[in-house]
Amino acid sequence: MNFEVSIRPDEGYYVGGTFVFTFQVSPIYPHEAPKVKCKTKVYHPNIDLEGNVCLNILREDWKPVLNINTIIYGLFHLFTQPNYEDPLNHEAAAVLRDNPKLFESNVRRAMAGGYVGQTFFIRCI
Length: 125
Known about the structure:
Radius of gyration: 14 Å
Order of helices and strands: EEEHHHEE
Strand content: 15-25%
Largest sheet: 3 strands, antiparallel
Strand order of the largest sheet: 1-2-3
Protein name: NEDD8-conjugating enzyme Ubc12
Structural class: alpha+beta
Number of helices: 3
Shape: globular
Oligomer: single chain
Helix content: 25-40%
Organism: Citrus sinensis
């Protein structure tokens, strides 16, 4: 079972953006967490430039009582409350931690379609 989910944050740094995630659900679900990747390149401390997602319930905290809705809520939470303490994109995490205003500017530039450092982001707003 493979499908896509679009997340559209209504608050926070990423408000107005649309971020597409792919879900691959294993035949042994719910005993194994789905594999989730972000198809939209995003400047985010918890999502790397290859689309890997750092969300605890996709790794060590997965339990069979959790479900797809729990994951979608977790993804939404990453956009409303990005976490610099558990990063995949260490540069974005450091900027969020040390200079939130610059982080916000970088997010806006990336979402509008442009460069942040040497990385080009396609418009997602």
